[in-house]
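Summary for the funding panel

The consortium committed to producing paired sequence-structure records for every protein in the target list. Below we show the first two records in order, beginning with the earlier of the two.
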Amino acid sequence: MSPFWGEVIGTMILIVFGAGVGAGTSLTKSYAKDSGWIVITIAWGLAVTLGVFAVGSISGAHLNPAVTIGLALNGSFAWGDVPGYILAQMIGAIIGAALVFLQYLPHWKATDDQGTKLGVFATSPAIPHTFSNLLSEMLGTFMLVLGLLYIGANEFTKGLNPFAVGLLIIAIGMSLGGTTGYAINPARDLGPRIAHFLLPIPGKGPSNWGYAWIPVVGPILGGSLGAVFYKYMFSGTISTSFWVVLVANIVVLVLAYVLGEKKQSEMDSSKIAV
């Protein structure tokens, strides 16, 4: 199997189990309904673990564009392979989301709430706040990529590494995921969001494209910073990419804050006018 298909299959596995637990815990008449956040975070951790077990020896099991870009910035992955990996991850995510749709086919019609249906496929903020939502995704993915690199620097008994990665995902979900649903992966959010847009889901609402940029831009920026930060702090190597990525993170956060405050001000003004 080629690395391309490894990433397709690995990301598909990730989404089948990850979005699957979202469907099981939220859709009407599912036996797992209302199982709660602990179940969701553990299942996502296992989803990553199983995806890594499946294709780690084939593609390295990035399963995440933020990881692929971060490793390229870190110098441990060829830039020429980045576009193919990201394409494969997107394809796998869409296929995985479509399989979850089919698995819970009668439950979509039984579920009235449009937001619940979208939540199976894509993330959304607990409290909409552009700056905070973006920062949440950046920090979560910073910890993800940094964690992957320091886990990789340790020697494990053969086959144990994927479990350590799964524990990292669980920790991020439990500690940092309550704000935005911790996409921490552009393919994990954008791929299923596209599937939600395309699939004939009964009674579905909009796919919330206005928010969709945050779980794409945030993870890419945060993951990139995690990679160059690791190289600088743990390896003692500093490069131009470190400063470029750091400045990019700061600039985007500042812009998000300014635009978010402007949007809030306009909303407040409209409420006063009414």
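The next record, for a separate protein in the list, is shown here:
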Amino acid sequence: MTENCWQRVSSELAMKPYFNELKDSAYFYFTFQVNIARTRKEYHIGYSHMCNFFGILLPYHPVISNVFTFYLRLDSHSYLLGPTLTYDLFDYMQINRLQYSFLMVHMDHRVYVKGLWNLFHKFLTHSCMIPSSAVKKTQTSSFTGWYSNAIIFNNFELCNGSLWREPRMEAWLRQVDKSEGIYKYRWGDAPIRTLAVTQFLEKNQVVKLCDIGYSHRHQYTCASHIHPCAVPPHLKGSLNSFYPQGCYPTDNPFCNYYQENT
């Protein structure tokens, strides 16, 4: 983000924002070459760096661990489509004792989660744990008993940063990091996070936000009481995958599983 962009963002916000330029941080260092055999070479190494950053590293950054309780993740492709909220999302999370919230759910491609389900179950066995009720309901196919590939779209992710530093969560993230699957097989941060949320959080600690219209690349959803969304002109040609109530497909096991705000 350039200095001009920082200034423009600052001028549009009611409160003074805080910017932290990660490329100058000693905490993060990304190389454009890694000594790992990669099976999905059609994806640039930068994509794997991004997944590693959002999936594993972010909660340990000093700004997240020492300054803020909750954080909201948005991508450069993220757009909020309205309406304007009349409440503070962070206050809503804290008052209702929520740990994690999201807007949309999706089905990942099987080729992008190679080995992840096996790693997850090996981790549970090694840790003397069994799959949670949420894992059985949302991550396990009712037809095959295998991985359902259902994921939470975490390109919009509002959560308590400390939950990722909880010992069981941290152990899972360390196991993923040690496996090098993000770089070997192109694992995304979404399935890694989804498995963690469904295994380690209570059902009443998670909420699906339904009063925010949102788009990411070609996918979009509208606030539950507004359709069609007020889509900015520069996005109208690119939004072609509508997710009713934030769900795709409509039989996604996450649809109607977690509580929804109204």
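Regarding this second record: Residues 224 and 245 are 6 Å apart (CA to CA). Confidence is low (pLDDT under 50) at residues 24-32.
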